[in-house]
UniProtKB/TrEMBL annotation:
CDD domains: RNase_H_like (cd06222)
Matching Pfam families: RVT_3 (PF13456)
Name of this chain's protein: RNase H type-1 domain-containing protein
Span of domain RNase H type-1: 7-107
Gene source species: Linum trigynum
Position of the signal peptide: none
Length: 127
């Protein structure tokens, strides 16, 4: 999860491991659900979630949680979006969201450490 301000400044990057989950679709759905809960737990009321899992995003937008692999997870996410009108979601291809993707990978590589990491300096060194 990468939290960015409206000006696209990285505020937080957080990675979690999902042991036993090998299906990328399930991992994407769980990651989105966890990001939504994290935002709720931390008092965010206006959030635009972006993801590169087009199947997941489209099903949420259509309120369609029929996939047997991720159906119950998507049902939960759809309910959370319905209850929190300030939450929106949109598909952003990985090529268009390269910075967030790189930061998310780096955050995951630091899991489970809690040390501070200067994301902006790290990003600047990669450009």
């Amino acid at each position: 999860m990468v939290l960015m301000s409206p000006a696209r400044v990285i505020l937080l990057a957080r990675g979690i491991q999902l042991p036993g989950l090998e299906d990328p679709l399930v991992c994407e759905a769980v990651a989105l659900r966890e990001a939504v809960y994290w935002c709720l737990d931390n008092g965010f009321s206006m959030v635009r979630f972006e993801g590169d899992a087009q199947v997941i995003i489209e099903r949420i937008l259509r309120r369609e949680a029929t996939d047997s692999r991720v159906g119950s997870i998507l049902e939960e996410v759809v309910q959370l979006f319905d209850m929190n009108v300030g939450f929106t979601v949109r598909f952003v291809g990985r090529r268009s969201n390269r910075v967030a993707h790189l930061v998310a990978k780096k955050a995951l590589s630091l899991y489970p450490t809690t040390s501070r990491f200067d994301y902006q300096a790290w990003l600047n060194s990669r450009v």
